[in-house]
């Protein structure tokens, strides 16, 4: 193993680099086996043989660590609540545009489609996506809305966005796959707006 | 093999019963390998070693044969275009209610979730669901609407319905899974109505 180790990047101190990699590896295994809700920073730290404080130091929260482990260069758990908390006028359109413009980038689309296929295709990994959606997206959006039925409103938005991604990028249904981002934003934006505020 | 054959049901003539089973088996294999669009009644008949006319005689169209092969006791390809062609007032609500009331039945839900998991989870079987949706649902709804952007309107409906089924029955997101059918119909019905007619 050690003889074939690739040259280290960015001159990071060796112990640190090893710990980081071990933590990421432990996170991938732990999320995969326990789902999002069943994994904790503590259980991942323990699996990696390091202290929880070191995990927090390198990666921040559980959501940060998940984003790092999945390798998606996008943080909907930070961006989306920000959009919902912004000016109310066109939250729906801005949110749909944010998602589509992300998925139009090949690297994000490839990883996103892979994540959807994996999470939906297997009973074992479904809790991974479901837990992340519930805690880090729906939960945060609902908190931002702060009304009695906020959780259901946020989940309805998730249902339309999930169906959009599924039909356009996974099933690639012809009229969805060929429609322009602007056209879809104009048609789906008002749906999201209504689910959130009306 | 023959010694262990189960007693035949309904006293159907033996040759006929064998042919029916062989056709269903061939349909399952052919749809699985070629997808919905890549399979024809002719290719399924050839695989089963029977004449195309016999397949039509026993099962009708390719859509009929697909429904039989998948084993879902529900014919959205017949029911949904019927709903869309009905009185315009509340097509959206009636359509959402139709889908939810079907999936509230355990037998349909179990097979439907299995079909979604399989079709989305594997690159190989995705064309199966995509082709059926495109030809037998979106295509027929679009024909009923008869406007220039009918295909996209029908596909948007498919996106919301797919996302609804995904979040409520596959991911089981808490607020979606626990909401009543009436509540979801009231919130999602107007979305479907708007995609179709506004």
Automatic annotation (TrEMBL), chains A, B:
PROSITE patterns: HTH_TETR_2. InterPro entries: Homeodomain-like_sf, HTH-type_TetR-like_transc_reg, HTH_TetR, Tet_transcr_reg_TetR-rel_C_sf, TetR_C_16. Residues 1-20 are annotated as: Disordered. The keyword DNA-binding applies. It comes from the Bacteria. Residues 40-59 bind DNA. Keywords: DNA-binding. This is AcrR family transcriptional regulator. It comes from Microbacterium foliorum.
């Amino acid at each position: 193993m050690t003889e074939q180790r690739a040259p280290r990047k960015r001159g990071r101190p060796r112990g640190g680099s090893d710990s980081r990699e071990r933590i990421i590896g432990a996170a991938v295994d732990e999320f995969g086996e326990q789902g999002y809700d069943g994994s904790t920073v503590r259980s991942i730290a323990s699996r990696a043989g390091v202290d929880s404080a070191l995990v927090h130091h390198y990666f921040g929260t559980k959501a940060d660590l998940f984003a790092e482990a999945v390798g998606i260069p996008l943080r909907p758990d930070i961006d989306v609540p920000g959009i919902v908390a912004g000016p109310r006028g066109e939250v729906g359109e801005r949110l749909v545009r944010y998602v589509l413009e992300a998925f139009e980038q090949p690297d994000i689309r490839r990883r996103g489609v892979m994540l959807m296929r994996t999470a939906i295709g297997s009973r074992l990994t479904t809790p991974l996506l479901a837990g992340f959606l519930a805690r880090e997206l729906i939960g945060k959006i609902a908190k931002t809305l702060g009304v009695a039925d906020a959780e259901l409103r946020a989940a309805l938005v998730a249902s339309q966005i999930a169906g959009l991604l599924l039909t356009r990028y996974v099933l690639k249904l012809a009229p969805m796959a060929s429609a322009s981002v602007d056209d879809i934003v104009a048609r789906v934006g008002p749906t999201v707006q209504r689910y959130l505020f009306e």
